[in-house]
Structures are given as C-alpha cells and as structure tokens.
Amino acid sequence: MPRKISNIEILKKAAKKYGYQYGLADSPYSEAIYVTDGASYFISRSKTKYGMYPTNLKFAEHLVDDKAVTKRFLKKFGFRVIKGKVFHIRENSKSKIKTADNVRAAYAYAKKISYPIFVKPNKGSRGSNARIIFNEIGLRKHIKVMREHGVELFLIEKFTQRPEYRLFVVGGKVEFMYRKQRVSITGTGKHTIEELLAIHGLTPDQDYLKNVLKKEKKTMKSVLNKDHEIDMQETSNISLGASIVEYREKIPKEVDKWANRLYRTMGLEVFGVDVFTKGGWNEPNKFLIIEINSCPALSGIFAKGHKEKVFKIWKKIMNKYFLSR
User: Residues near 199 by Cβ (< 8 Å), separated by ≥ 6?
Assistant: First the structure.
C-alpha cells in the first residue's frame, strides 16, 4: 500500500510546481513550513495555531472552532443546521453554569430527542471523542471519558443516517464535493455478520458493535440479507477510514449560490462544509449543516488521483495571497 501523503507535503509540491520557495519554519518541533515569493511569506501547518490556508482571517477561523456558536450564528442568518445543543461538563471558574446547560440537563435533552444520539466535543477535529450513543448508560460513560480528556463543552445532536457530503469552497466557489461513505458491511444473503467482518478485516469498537446489533435485532451469527448495509464506523471522517465516493467538480448553480452565501456570511476564504441532505446532493435548500472546517484536508482527493485539481486549488490560494499584498 502506498504511503499516504500529508497536506504539508502536498503544499510543498504545489509551491515547487508554481515557482514558490519553501522551508521549515519550526524544525524539529513541528512540521510547519513557510512559503515565500521572495518578498513576503506565510507559515502553514494543519490543525494548529498557524492554520493551513493563509487567506483565511483568524477571527473567522476562531469562530468555526466553536461549533455551538457557529451553529447559532448560521441559524440566525437563515441556514439549516443539524438539531443539537451544547452542554458544560464542569463548572467554569469565571462564570456560573446555568442549570439548563449542565450535565444533568444533557441527560434530559438526550432523552427528549431520543436515542441514538451523536455526541462530540464543542472543539476538536478528526472525530476525536465523537461517538454514537445508544442509551443513558453509554452517555454517562462517554461524558466520563470526555472529562478525563479535558473536554469542557460537548454537543448532543440528533443522529441521522442521511447521506453526508463535504463541499470544499474557495473564494465563494465550490471547487469539488463528494459523499462520505462510512466503513460498512453489506449483506450477501449467505454470510453471517461475523463472516463479513472477517472478510473485510474489520474490528469495530466492541461497545458500538454490541449496540448496533441490538438496534438491528441481530447477532454475530445472523446472516445479513442481500444488499442490507450496516455502518461499522461511528464517524464519517476520511482520516479514520471513511471513503470518498460520488466525487464531482461540476457543481450546479444552486449549490454554488448556496455556498457563496455561506462564504459571505462566515468570512472564510477557504473552508469545508459538511452537510446531511434530505434530498439529493444538488438540492441545497434541503442541506442540514453539520459543521464548518477552516482547515479542510486535500490529501483525501489527492490520494484518489485528483492531483491536478489539488495543485490548481493551491495555485489559486497562493496567487491570491501573494498578488494581493
């Protein structure tokens, strides 16, 4: 299996391809690099204080880092968002937490919107501490884990199995979009679930598997009906194994128009937006925004063979940065 290329390595290749110089900015303590045209420069590193894309304004990046505030902001400006609420794990020394926002209220809210639910930290990326929770026992257990990991605020969201799409936006234009396909097994009508997991070499989280089987009213020895699909991954993060399917660069005008409105609302030059859809991928009026990422990776589509598209995106970003100074 070929070595997966990192986002920083892709940037190095793009800089070299278009005549920009680069070098290490913080070696050996980080992979951060600088890119320069000889007169000015930017520093880039994914998922850190440096950020990945130099054309993004810091205040906008900080806004989308707070998932709950972003959702309230989007809702205020007329965008549809996945149903959910933020809760505090521990008391903040600077302010008193309202009863409606504490852990006890989280249990009541989860019961109100009904299990299963999706729980994730208010800040963070790559699916860290993000889980599908099937009952209150599981929620109590997961809150304990999040507390141990230093999480202060977390979101409880209504779980949905609708198709999830990622849109990659630069300068208000959708450069590409694709559907995220979770790791799953599909029935043959002949093999048991246990056999299908072995065939695909899958070892899902045992607690998650137990609850999925219970929800499906099946056991490991059950033969899965032909074409019946069961997700074996809790999140749709590409970095955690989900697949890129239905990739497309030809974007309908209505989707571009919707993304441009989001671009003008959020103030981010480069961002990824994840959506569930009640309709098709080309029906933005039915998009439910899950979250916005100010540092979306390009390594996934690069690995899928869309190298020239990735280079063109970086060319657009670097030219805008250097030529506007």
Answer: 191
pTM of the shown model: 0.90
Nearest Cα residue to 156 out of 111, 200, 187: 111
Find out whether 102 and 87 touch, Cβ atoms under 8 Å. yes
CA angle, 244 then 32 then 303, to 5°? 20
Contact present, 304 and 247 (Cβ < 8 Å): yes
| 3-state SS class at 28 | coil
Closest-CA residue to 68 (of 48, 92, 84): 84
Strands (DSSP E) contained in the chain are 21-24, 33-36, 41-44, 84-88, 117-121, 131-133, 153-158, 164-170, 173-181, 184-186, 229-231, 243-248, 270-277, 287-293
CA distance 55 to 272: 14
Query: DSSP string spanning 31-53?
Result: --EEEE-SS-EEEEBTTSTTBS-
Residue pLDDT, tens place only, 142-197 = 999 999 999 999 999 999 888 999 999 999 999 999 999 888 889 999 999 999 99
Could you tell me if 70 and 132 are in contact, meaning their C-beta atoms sit under 8 angstroms apart?
no
Nearest-angstrom CA–CA distance, 139 and 141: 5
Number of H helices, E strands in the chain: 10, 14
